[in-house]
Amino acid sequence: xxxxxxxxxxxxxxxxxxxxxxxRAAYACCGCYxxxxxxxxxxxxxxxxxxxxxxxxxxxxxWLLRVTVNKCxxxxxxxxxxxxxxxxxxxxxxxxxDVTDIEVRELISSLPxxxxxxxxxxxxxxxxxxxxAEILGKNSNTVNSLL
Length: 147
Description:
Elements: H1 10-30, H2 33-49, H3 57-77, H4 79-82, H5 101-109, H6 113-124, H7 129-136, H8 140-146
């Protein structure tokens, strides 16, 4: 089944179906909700500008997640992020053993991108190691060791 919609409505369809997933993946990678929204917007604008034919919804979702992870990597390499330090970094507190889901996601997003993207896709999106390897373009053994 080929996902094809006229007048470039594939981006609108993708946003309605996978918008939350893309924002959650971006948030897991960058740790800032505002930046995650910007990254998600960039992902859907990219899809709108350069539409692609997809075999099915899973192919579309995997493509969106791959582009999201790449945009998050670009975000982390950007001048603004690599050359600045958050104001709150000097006031970090020790984490207690009683952590919430939000705190766990923040901790995951503070990991290097190669770990945070793999952990997010495995534990939050439920992808298998082989599927994650295909999405990220890595070897299955590499994904397994990153987990």
